Amino acid sequence: MVRIRNLHFGYSKKHPLFQALNLSLDRGHIYGLLGKNGAGKTTLLKNIVGLAFPWQGTCLIDEQPAAARKPAVLEDLFFLPEEVYAPALTAEQFVAHTAGFYPRFSTEQLYEYLEELEVPRGQKLNKFSHGQQKKFMIAFALAANTGLLVLDEPTNGLDIPSKVQFRKILASALSEERCMVISTHQVRDLESLIDTVVVVHNREIVLNHDIDQLAERLTFARGAAAEAPGAFYQGASVGGPVAIRPNEAGAYSRVDLELLFNALTSGDATALHTYLNQPRHESVQ
Ligand SMILES: Nc1ncnc2c1ncn2[C@@H]1O[C@H](COP(=O)(O)OP(=O)(O)OP(=O)(O)O)[C@@H](O)[C@H]1O
C-alpha cells in the first residue's frame, strides 16, 4: 500500500534527514514505528501522507504519489498528528462537518469507541482535557475506516487504562484491508499490539521485521541466562540482567520491544543487524 523508494528529505539543504531511504508497508498489518526523540518519525510519517515533499525519490500510496494529495487517496487516508486540534464543536457537529470526507465513516462505530474510551458526550471538544481530546480524535480516526491509518504518538497524554483500551480497540479494528502505522518513542505502549517493528535511528531504518520472525530468531533472556557469553546485547533491568541472544534452542520467547530498541539504538548493534539480515538457514547450525 505504501512504497517509499530512494527517499531523500531534509528541512534544510545543509542537513539532510533521510538519504536513499526505502520502506514498504502493506495492508493487513499494524506497524510500530519506533525511534528516539528527534529520530525523524514524524518527518517520515509526513512524507508518507504527503504533508512533506521528497527532495528525491518517491512516496507512493496505492501507486499514487502521496504529495499529489489526490482526493481518491485522501479519502482513504487518515493521519492523526501528535498535537490534535479540537474545535469548539460538539461530537455531533464535528461529525457533521468532517465525516463527509471519509466515505466509509461510521457514526455508530465512533460512539462505540468513545464509550469504550470513556469520552463524555455532549460537551464541546475544546472543553475536553488534552487526554480526552486525543481519545476523541483516535476514535474518529478509527471510525473513518480508511485503508491507511497513520497515528503519530497516539498514546502521549493517555492514562494507563486508556492505553489498554487503545490497544484493544486498535487490534479489533485491524482487517485485511487496512494498514495501520503507529509511531512512538514510548516503546512499551505498543507491546502486544503491533505485528511489525520498524526502528528509525540516526536517520536510517535500522530494523523492519515481523514480531513472529523476531521471536523465532532471538531469545530475550533474563537472570542467569542473560549473563552467559554470546549475547548480542546485555543490559540491566529492575529484575536483574537481561540480554538478547540468538535463539539456539528453538524455544519461543516473547519479544521484549524495549530491550530490542535499546540494543539497536545504544552501542554497537552490528552483530545483531548482521544476524537478523542473513537468511534463516544460514544462521541455523
Ligand atoms: N519543521 C521543521 N523545520 C526544521 N527542522 C525540523 C522540523 N521538524 C522537525 N525538524 C527536525 O527534524 C528532526 C526530526 O524531527 P521529527 O519531529 O521528525 O522527530 P521525531 O522522531 O518525530 O521526534 P519526537 O519523538 O520528539 O516527536 C529533528 O532534528 C527536528 O529538529
UniProtKB/TrEMBL annotation:
<dbReference type="InterPro" id="IPR027417">
    <property type="entry name" value="P-loop_NTPase"/>
</dbReference>
<keyword id="KW-0547">Nucleotide-binding</keyword>
<keyword id="KW-0067">ATP-binding</keyword>
<feature type="domain" description="ABC transporter">
    <location>
        <begin position="2"/>
        <end position="227"/>
    </location>
</feature>
<dbReference type="Pfam" id="PF00005">
    <property type="entry name" value="ABC_tran"/>
</dbReference>
<protein>
    <submittedName>
        <fullName>ABC transporter ATP-binding protein</fullName>
    </submittedName>
</protein>
<keyword id="KW-0813">Transport</keyword>
<dbReference type="InterPro" id="IPR051782">
    <property type="entry name" value="ABC_Transporter_VariousFunc"/>
</dbReference>
<dbReference type="InterPro" id="IPR003593">
    <property type="entry name" value="AAA+_ATPase"/>
</dbReference>
<dbReference type="GO" id="GO:0005524">
    <property type="term" value="F:ATP binding"/>
</dbReference>
<dbReference type="InterPro" id="IPR003439">
    <property type="entry name" value="ABC_transporter-like_ATP-bd"/>
</dbReference>
